[in-house]
Amino acid sequence: MYVGAIDQGTTGTRFLVFDRDASVVAGAYETHEQHYPEPAWVEHDPGELWANTQSVVESALADAGIAPADLAAIGVTNQRETTVLWDAETGDPVHDAIVWQDRRTTERIEGLSDDLSAYVQETTGLEPDAYFSASKLEWLLENADPIEPTRSATRSVRERAESGEVLFGTIDSWLIYKLTGEHVTDVTNASRTMLYDIHDCAWDDRLLAEFDVPRACLPDVRPSSDDEYYGYTDPGGFLGAQVPVAGALGDQQAALFGQACFDPGDAKNTYGTGSFFLLNTGETPVESTHGLLTTIGFQRRGEPVQYALEGSIFATGAAIEWLNDVSLVEDAGETESLARAVDGTDGVYVVPAFTGLGAPHWDPRARGTIVGLTRGTRREHVVRATLEAIAYQTRDVAEAMLADSDVSLSTLRVDGGAVKNDFLCQLIADVLDTDIDRPVVDETTALGAAYAAGLAADYWRDLDALRENRRTDRAFTPRDGDWDAKYDRWQDAVERSRDWATESP
């Protein structure tokens, strides 16, 4: 028997199958199209995401010769905050999903009163921002095309949502609904909507009223690892088997779980399209006064919620992709050799604020900036400066976490595509003055979802069994250097990027 994990991310969908040692025994991946209907708007086709999910599940199982009935459970992890509406009867999406990167509702968030903004932070643990689901959902309810249930009548999407005929969900909810027919989400994804009270673990009436969201369209909120199961796959569906769907976590919380950060003080940073730095704070939420988010880390059924502090950095892997977009590198792997080819950046700093700055700055109008260019600047300097920016942004968050929690990191566990670059890992260790631990199994996001489902299905006995599974691929120890001075100069570069996009997004 095995456990499967659907990992639906910003750029693609992956399905991985794990054995009891947390080794990957099967996998498949497909990318999907990014839609940009307006500047600063980003959308995905939910139908394409579902089609790709079916495709990667079928491909991975077939390639490995694994029968669907050999899956003890399936877990789901997902790009967070991305918002979907669909018809409850047909299961068809009402509109393309609005992606977490989308900035179309920036002015709506900027118009919130100081009192309401403070209430958002106090109740949800989040900094008011267009990043989260609430204003995206409001926009969809007001602007999605009407649904025509009969030839003689047209009812608005909002009217249908008020009667529960149109349903809202983040991507986990969408996939679980398509897999099982059940309308559920887990506590971690609910905590990213800006509509959920993370202290009482309930949808918040004041925020639902502010964003005019009908309760009837909301999913049931469940533990991240649920031995009562979210539902079962349809034996008459694409899998041809009844498999329990038993766990779900937003992608960054899934990576926290997959990295076995089960105890207060454990921390991980995932370097994907963006970077997401999470510190487990235990059963007590720590309110940030330094620009971080307080979020739910995970919950097992029958146990208290575990909280985390989070620093969300919007562009790390995306910064490396930009280097490719502008032909400074031919592929991501080239960045390491180019960065090693020079001793430093020659005074160049890159601030990759392509969609604004996240934690701890929270400036949606910041934009990508390069400073310090001279006639002697070469592409190697710009490439190295881009990698250094990833490390500096990580330190921004680490220093905010220290200020909020008084926890000084001894080790940071890292994962994600960017940390396959040894130069970058060493750079992060140097800039943070902290040991960096990279695991053997680098698909920690999918592994976390598998762990959540497998624990619920008794595939793994307890958290200690998961701790025993974790193995280090390589550790990086900090070296001496003048990083404090360079980091101070980085702050100057950040200031020059801020409040640049004065036009409406």
Task: Write structural notes for this entry.
Helix content is 33%, strand content 22%. By secondary structure, the chain is an alpha+beta fold. It has a domain at 261-497: Nucleotidyltransferase, domain 5 (2-Layer Sandwich). A seven-stranded mixed sheet has the order 17-18-16-15-21-22-23. It is globular and about 65 Å long. Its EC number is 2.7.1.30. Keywords: ATP-binding, Glycerol metabolism, Kinase, Nucleotide-binding, Transferase. One of its GO terms (molecular function) is ATP binding. It comes from Salarchaeum japonicum.
Question: What labels would you give this structure?
Answer:
single chain; 505 residues; 16 helices; 23 strands; six-stranded mixed β-sheet; seven-stranded mixed β-sheet; alpha+beta; Nucleotidyltransferase, domain 5
